Amino acid sequence: MHRVTLVDTDICFQQDETHDTLLRAGLSQGIGLPYECNSGGCGSCKFELLEGELEELWPDAPALTARDRKKGRKLACQCRALSDLVIRMRTDESCVPVHAPARQQAVLEARRDITPDIVEFRLRTESPAHFQPGQYAMLTLPGTSAPRAYSMSNLANDNGIWEFWIRRKPDGAISPALFDSFHPGDTLALDGPYGLAVLNTGSPRDVVCIAGGSGISPVLSIARGLLRSPELADRALHFFLGARTRADICGLDELAALPGFDTRVTTYIALSDASPDEGWEGATGFIHELVAKELGPRLAEHECYLAGPPPMVQATTRMLMLDHKVPQEQVHFDRFF
Ligand code: FES
């Protein structure tokens, strides 16, 4: 058991499992440590080591710059204490987890093809599935070395059901094992929930959801949370989906099944790689361009949620915050790069 003290604060926590990272240990004890990806990519969890010894799980993590390394900065999501530590790290009330992450075994109940390369994996845990719309879990398959972050597409429930829409990445670290060798009845380790890009139930604004590729999973969860929340019953939803081709369009049936779909939801689709023989007469190009065209100056009146591949997230956040001056606190996304 190692004690981690945050200098200049009265905060300390224990790392009592050798396989916990500092980030996980802090969050599981209710400390509001800032983070986004939990995977070494975003840099939100940087801290300075002042005293003690630690192990870096991924010393070359891309979130650390040469300057960071020179200044002795580390990533809380990639470090484990080997002794008591004193660190300098900011905390934030908004990062205090509503549901502390928990590790459990999950069994695959079913899988369902959504598009040619997106599959829904429906997992069940013995404990209730407690999470907020927009959050993710870290999944570790037997025989693979590192957990991977995947977002839930469903809503919290007492039946222990966790649904993930996952896109196959032929060269991904876990994707081939997940798609080719993970069958109903098999189990994996699920650790979660994580993520701060969650549905803001306290906002009076209408909502814009923007999904690209497998970013559909958390955005669908946000839409479900919005349309099923009685306290948000007067909020309209603009749902934007960016896909490559007609075959990649997904999530519309699930949206149409939600209460209030006919009166509160407007859907928009843009295809980036539609070929002429698809007969597509809708919008083409990138999804952030369609969002700007449809809502433009009205965007700043909305709560905006987005998820997708890094280039899509970068282009969309730039469009929202720079071109249309949407305040940062109204733009919700977790950076996985
Ligand atoms: Fe640690 Fe993103 S949360 S690098």
TrEMBL record:
Q: Where are the transmembrane segments?
A: none
> In what residue span(s) does the FAD-binding FR-type domain sit?
101-200
The record's annotation in SUPFAM superfamilies points to: 2Fe-2S ferredoxin-like, Ferredoxin reductase-like, C-terminal NADP-linked domain, Riboflavin synthase domain-like
Q: Write one Pfam family the protein is assigned to.
A: NAD_binding_1
Ranges for domain 2Fe-2S ferredoxin-type come to: 2-93
Q: Which domain of life is it from?
A: Bacteria
Question: Which PANTHER family did the record assign?
Answer: NADH OXIDOREDUCTASE HCR, PROTEIN RFBI
Protein's name in the database: FAD-binding oxidoreductase
Q: Which organism is it from?
A: Alcanivorax quisquiliarum
Taxonomy-wise, where does this protein's organism fall, top ranks first?
A: Bacteria, Pseudomonadati, Pseudomonadota, Gammaproteobacteria, Oceanospirillales
